[in-house]
Amino acid sequence: MLLVLCVDLDDDLGRKTPVGSPVIGEEPVREAAVALATADPEDSDVNVLFQGLHIAEEVEDEAVEVAAVTGTDGSDVAANRAVGEEVDTVLASLSTSEEVRALVVTDGAQDESVIPVIRSRVTVDGVRRVVVRQAQDLESMYYTIKQVLNDPETRGTLLVPIGILLMMYPLSVLASYFELPGLVLGTTSALLGLYLLSRGLGLSESIDRWVERGRRSLYAGRATLITYLVATVLLVIGGASGVEQLEALQSSSAAPLSAVEVAAALVYGAVRWFAAAGLTTSLGQITDEYLAERLRWRYLNAPFYVLAIALVLHAVGAYVLGIVDLSILAGALTAGTLLGIASTLTFAIAEARFPRDAEVAS
Question: What string of H, E and C letters represents the secondary structure of the chain?
Answer without folding.
Answer: CEEEEEEECCCHHHHHCCCCCCEECHHHHHHHHHHHHHHCCCCCHHHHHHHHHHHHHHCCCCCEEEEEEECCCCCHHHHHHHHHHHHHHHHHHCCCCCCCEEEEEECCCCHHHHHHHHHCCCEEEEEEECCCHHHCCHHHHHHHHHHHHHCHHHHHHHHHHHHHHHCHHHHHHHHHHCCCHHHHHHHHHHHHHHHHHHHHCCHHHHHHHHHHHHHHHHHHCCCHHHHHHHHHHHHHHHHHHHHHHHHHHHHHCCCCCCHHHHHHHHHHHHHHHHHHHHHHHHHHHHHHHHHCCCCCHHHHHHHHHHHHHHHHHHHHHHHHCCCCCHHHHHHHHHHHHHHHHHHHHHHHHHHHHCHHHHHHHC
